[in-house]
Amino acid sequence: MTVQLLRRTVLGLVATVAGVLLTLASAAPATGHAMLLGTDPADGDVLTAPPDVVTLTFNEPVQADDGSVRLLDAAGEPIAAEARPVDDTVEITVPADLPEGSYVVDWSVVSADGHPVGGAFTFAVGRPSTAVAEVAAPTGDPLVDLLHQGAQVFVYLGILGTSGLVLFRTVLLDRGAGIVHAPVLRLATVFAAAALGGLLVYLAADGAWRTGSGLPGLVDPGTLWDTLTGTPVGTATVVALVGLVLALGAGATPAGRAVTCAGALLALLSLPLAGHSRSFGPAWLVLGSDAVHVSAGAVWFGGVLGLVITLRSSAPASAAARTVGRFSTAALWVVLALAATGTVLAWRILPDLAALTSTGYGLTLLAKVAVVGVVVLVAAWNRYRLVPHVGDDDGARARLRRTVGTEAWLILLAVTLTGVLVSQSPTDGHTAPAAARPVAEHVALGDGMADVRVAPARVGANVVEIELNDADGEPLEPAADPQVRLSLPEQDLGPLTPALTRTGTGRYELPVDLPLPGGWELELSVRTSTFDNPVVVVPVEVVP
């Protein structure tokens, strides 16, 4: 490989990544992949007694660092409570003497693939507090987000480039083209340097991003150590570094070549360890498909780069032709492997087909598929029109050199898009089905108050609970049993008038079947005296 080609490759790599970083800088940061399915007590619940345990349930196993899940009182002051993750739940042990009032659960967890997600919800014991402190949503540092996403691009480019070139040099390159070994190794070293830089920046940025510590977290020793020793990113970093050292440091003996190939594959296997595939199942299918996908991509990427070097070198035409033939045969299986495993990954990772056009992840995936489609067309032209003549036609070799160069640039773009893809959430921007949220309203009723609860606020069987209190907060005995009417105005449905059961002084319970989703209205009419009959309307949002 000439110095000019090396310079062009490095400049092209920098230019491509710079363009992607500019795009990332203007993009919204990706959201976490774990989703909160529900809480017990539910958001807004009003309880008669303190719960023993508050439970948060997610769609996948999560990790919770010390202090990342907090119980706060209405003023925002922390309450001593132990939180511990158990598989796909987080359990908070609540003090038994929790006084009456409202409480906030402020939570932040790390999903299976290392992405953080957080939020907050409230519940009350007895009478809710008149005011509840708002917990600010966690906001990431834009520069940390940019470093985190940009480093992933360098990691993918570096590892796929290094591993692919090493495999080309060890397996595909003809022995008669020995003059190509040194330039291939030099270019592999360039990609390894990019991978090393990307891994170190990604390790630091992931800790700061995961903990929300901002720029100071990039150089915080404790955060770095926790990330290295306790997260999927730390494991992947160690595996990648070991693989890169083995791939470049082994000798030229048969045993050395075996170690070289093993190192290249080890570095490639580090990529699924901290990617989307950790969050989806079945694990054997998704992780296996991801491993085959990145390995096939590396063989294609490194093989095309190696071919460019071979065709530009002074290697004998016969040796170059044999190398081209070997790669052409391997490329057919590589394309089939990429197509099959890519389809499996999209099927398991995307929530539905609509996510292809409604999420940044889906649009990036479509862009990558489009680029790869063009590469396949160029490769097919090379295979069937130019490769058969490369050994005996100098013009065919020159034309093949040009088209393979185009193929290399396109694959460089596809690999860069892959690096962008892994930094995005498959569900970011995608509208998920609404979760049921029990209704709990504290409303004025004449001179007193009424607490109205509807659970689970989902189509089907529900229970309405009503508590009436006078101006002093004591249970109110009405002059007659309350009347409850439920209507769905948007469907012109109702009113439903379920029978209620008295459970205590001013306390009532009534079962009701709500047949359709939508914005229901619960009308509560209470005769509090001979002449007073206040009526209140409580909105009830019912989900499918």
TrEMBL record:
It is found in: Cell membrane. Coiled coil: none annotated. One of its GO terms (biological process) is response to copper ion. Residues 33-125 form the CopC domain. PROSITE patterns: TAT. Keywords: Cell membrane, Copper, Membrane, Metal-binding, Signal, Transmembrane, Transmembrane helix. GO terms for cellular component: periplasmic space; plasma membrane. It is a multi-pass membrane protein. The chain crosses the membrane at residues 153-172, 184-205, 225-248, 255-274, 294-315, 327-349, 361-382. Residues 1-30 form the signal peptide. This is Copper transport protein. Residues 322-421 form the Copper resistance protein D domain. GO terms for molecular function: copper ion binding.
